[in-house]
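User: Hello! My lab partner asked me to get a predicted holo structure for this protein. The small molecule is pyridoxal-5'-phosphate, SMILES included with the sequence. Please write out the structure tokens.
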Amino acid sequence: MLQLPEKYSNVGTTIFTVMSALAQKYSAINLSQGFPDFGVDPNLGNLLLEASEQGFNQYAPMAGLLSLRQEIARHLFESQNVQVNADTEITITPGATYAIYTAFAAVLQPGDEVIVFEPAYDSYIPNIEMNGAKAITITLSAPSFSIDWNQVKDRINTKTKAIILTTPHNPTGTILSQQDWDLLAEIVRDTQIVILSDEVYEQLVYDGKKHISILRHPELRLRSFVLYSFGKALHITGWKVGYCIASPTLTEAFRKIHQFLSFSVNTPAQYALSKYLQLPLHQPVSVFMQKKRDLFLSILKDTPFTIYEPSAGSYFQLAGYDQISSLPEHEFAVWLTKHYGVATIPLSAFYRDKKENKLIRFCFAKKEETLRSAAIQLQKL
Ligand SMILES: Cc1ncc(COP(=O)(O)O)c(C=O)c1O
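Assistant: Hello! Below are the structure tokens for the protein in complex with pyridoxal-5'-phosphate.
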């Protein structure tokens, strides 16, 4: 019998796998995991075929295809009015999850502390701990889930090496403001703290609100890794292509790890993305996705679910169920899947201590027919 060392053995199967499996078992509509169920733009699919035909089948450069990095720089200039150097500040990665791990690996040493706001995307804490550091959690509470920056100040000490933030936020759908960035800048000004800003939902912001990247803050930008995902921006989560923007110094540290983890990223996908980003855009993705969010909100209006805040960004909408049941969140999500055929994610899954808010998370990045089928089920409640 092989004796393996204990490596992250306290983690079971993730809630996303559990709920998707349950959805399958009960033939439920899956509004749990954050992935679209609609097809990709055929132009993008065709470019993937073209890439292979054109001979883009071997390793890409370690930092990524230059043509793709140039398109990303153009996009950031147009959307955020920031200049990013394609050579020294952009690295293409196999998705954002990988980029988060790599950024942590580049800066953390055993004994370091990292501040994480909960509810949190599930890879953050494991990625910190896999790098020998300790996650210091700060709890954000319903309904606003806003950050109390005084609390952050109190939790910082000489061991604090990094802070990770998410905007737009999964699972709450909130976004950070310029004032949040200004307050953060004041707190970290005389420290060595590095910021990881997870901005994978940057293009999915609704109601005329604007995504404000940390890159727009000249002071914070110098100490930040900013992580993005084409999976979320172009509805291609299975392609697993993302990127990391950071200052030349941080990028150098990032690439030292990246070159020995994956070295490079799927070349045909990079070719297709670089060509696709040069095509004229028909409709901003936020307009496309807001229609889905609005449809979903109108569906929930005819159910006993409570909406505290419409999602300001991301794929997700939180909803309260205290008019329906007194079950804890996990049990309620299982009950809803089994008896009403709609799978969701309990918000408690995003807190290490499984904090209860009596809220569940719906993913509305689905075909209209999927959302309408879910409506029929939920309106029976
Ligand atoms: C906040 C957040 N960051 C990162 C990711 C992962 O992105 P990728 O699929 O590119 O690894 C997700 C996916 O759900 C997410 O919600």
